Structure formats: structure tokens, C-alpha cells
Amino acid sequence: MRTIKEKSDATFIYTSKYLDDQASAFILDGEKSGTVLFSPFGSHDGMDEEELHTFLTGESTVSNLKEDPEWGTYLSAYAAIIDSRDRSVVGLVGVDYSEDHFDQLTSRFALLLNFSFAIFTLVTALALYAAILTIQDHSGLDELTGLGNKRAFNRTLHLIIAEAKKRNQPFVLCMLDIDCFKSINDSYGHPVGDLVLQSMGKALLDLTQRNRSCFRIGGDEFALILPSSSRLQAVQAKQELCNHFKHLDIPSLQDRKVTVSIGIGEWVTGITAETLVSYADKDLYEQKRKKACPTTP
């Protein structure tokens, strides 16, 4: 839980279970054990309106800005932990963000991707992000790049679709492919090819502030999920990505530049995960069809 807190820059993060309409009990706490802020297993806490709503309905909720004489101004978001066997709510993930951290995070997203996230959308995504991190244990990581692997991608995509259905909000899937990657392997060798893949993974993690929405799904194929985004916003992000990859410095490639093709698929109500992937793949193929590989040195 502390690792999730550090990676998400949350002020507080915890899991809890329902006791009654006035109280909940802590299960896991992101604070260091023994510190004044740590809440031990089983300790009780008051129940606010949004938290109770999540326990009773399973819907993610977010509070208005709260003022506290000790903690200052902050926002709280809650996401239900669902038992897949009977769809019952067995607990929730709570995330608190201070006003300072929230301002920094929204600014960072704006600089990187030029997205205009509404407060509700962003904080809901942050609560969902904590759930995504729990999926991506070591069995869901690609060892070469540090990105999520295909297994993690499939699980995360279905999670994002389920959340999008609840909110009736679109999102975008980008499929990325390194142009002429086979010729890189053939001309420079597979160790250099691995360096290119690792550079691609690092670039995606850096551009997304390591938010775990990017994946290597096989070979030189990558995927990036952009929550709560339109196709127009994805086109802007696509340009940012393409420009960034043009400036990747891989000395072993000498003067050869790495370029990528990016296909975009926008999810709307009624589209399955498989259909969304096929839309993005088709757009990716169209982008690659227009390009020619450089001559072998």
C-alpha cells in the first residue's frame, strides 16, 4: 500500500470495510507503521456521505473540496472492492489528495498531454489507478521494458471499459509499433533491438509519469490507454509521442532515427474490448502502410 501511495503521489491511501452507516474499519494503510498518521488494522473511522454511497452502491465517488484545521484543503475519492463471485462490495479503496498535490498533478498532465481533465474525472481516475496497480504484480510486467505485459493489458482494458460504462465517458486506446523494427534487428543485432525496446518503454513511462497505463503486448507492439479522453485529445497526445520518439538518442544506431506509428481507437458505449483493439490496429496499419523503411547501412 505504501508503494501505491508513493507511485500515485497520494496524500493518504487506504482500504477499509463497512461496519455500519456511521463507521468503517481500516484494513490496510499507506502510512508507515508506528507513525502518528498510521491507522492500525481494525481501527475505526467515521463514515462520510460519499464513502457510504460507495459501500452501499459499489459506485466510485468523489467529495467536494474539504477544509480541515489540521490537514488543510483536500479531496477524497472512493472506489469499491468487488467480490467477483457475487458482485458484493467487500471493501473500498480511499484516496485523499491535498490541494497542493492535486494542483501539481493536474499541471503535470496538462504539460505532457494537453488534456483538460474535469475534477471529478481526474480524481475518479486516481482512485481507479490504485486498483490498476494492484493488478500489475510481477506476473503482469514485461521484464525487458518494465511496462505491463499483454496479460495486464487485457485485464486493465476490461477494468477501464467497466468504469467507462458506469460514467458514460469515452476513452482512447493507442496502439504503437516501432517502424521497420525487423530491419533494426537485422542490421544492428538483437541486443541493439532490445535497447530500442527498452528506450521505447522508458519514453512511455516518462511521458505518462509512470501511471501504468502503457503496455508492451508483444514484439515491438505497445499499447497506451488514455482514460476520459476524446479522439481529438488523443491526436494531440499522438503528436507529442511521435515528436518525443524522434529525439530518442540510441548511440548504437549511429545516425538512424527511431520512428513509431500510432493507431487510435475511441471507445464509446456498446464497443467491446476486442472491437476497440481492432479499430486501433486498423488505424495503426494505415499509418504504417504510408511509410518506407530506410536502406540498410
Automatic annotation (TrEMBL):
<feature type="domain" description="GGDEF">
    <location>
        <begin position="169"/>
        <end position="297"/>
    </location>
</feature>
<feature type="transmembrane region" description="Helical">
    <location>
        <begin position="111"/>
        <end position="132"/>
    </location>
</feature>
<dbReference type="GO" id="GO:1902201">
    <property type="term" value="P:negative regulation of bacterial-type flagellum-dependent cell motility"/>
</dbReference>
<keyword id="KW-1133">Transmembrane helix</keyword>
<keyword id="KW-0812">Transmembrane</keyword>
<dbReference type="Pfam" id="PF00990">
    <property type="entry name" value="GGDEF"/>
</dbReference>
<dbReference type="InterPro" id="IPR029787">
    <property type="entry name" value="Nucleotide_cyclase"/>
</dbReference>
<protein>
    <recommendedName>
        <fullName>GGDEF domain-containing protein</fullName>
    </recommendedName>
</protein>
<dbReference type="InterPro" id="IPR050469">
    <property type="entry name" value="Diguanylate_Cyclase"/>
</dbReference>
<dbReference type="GO" id="GO:0005886">
    <property type="term" value="C:plasma membrane"/>
</dbReference>
<dbReference type="InterPro" id="IPR043128">
    <property type="entry name" value="Rev_trsase/Diguanyl_cyclase"/>
</dbReference>
<dbReference type="InterPro" id="IPR000160">
    <property type="entry name" value="GGDEF_dom"/>
</dbReference>
<dbReference type="GO" id="GO:0043709">
    <property type="term" value="P:cell adhesion involved in single-species biofilm formation"/>
</dbReference>
<dbReference type="GO" id="GO:0052621">
    <property type="term" value="F:diguanylate cyclase activity"/>
</dbReference>
<keyword id="KW-0472">Membrane</keyword>
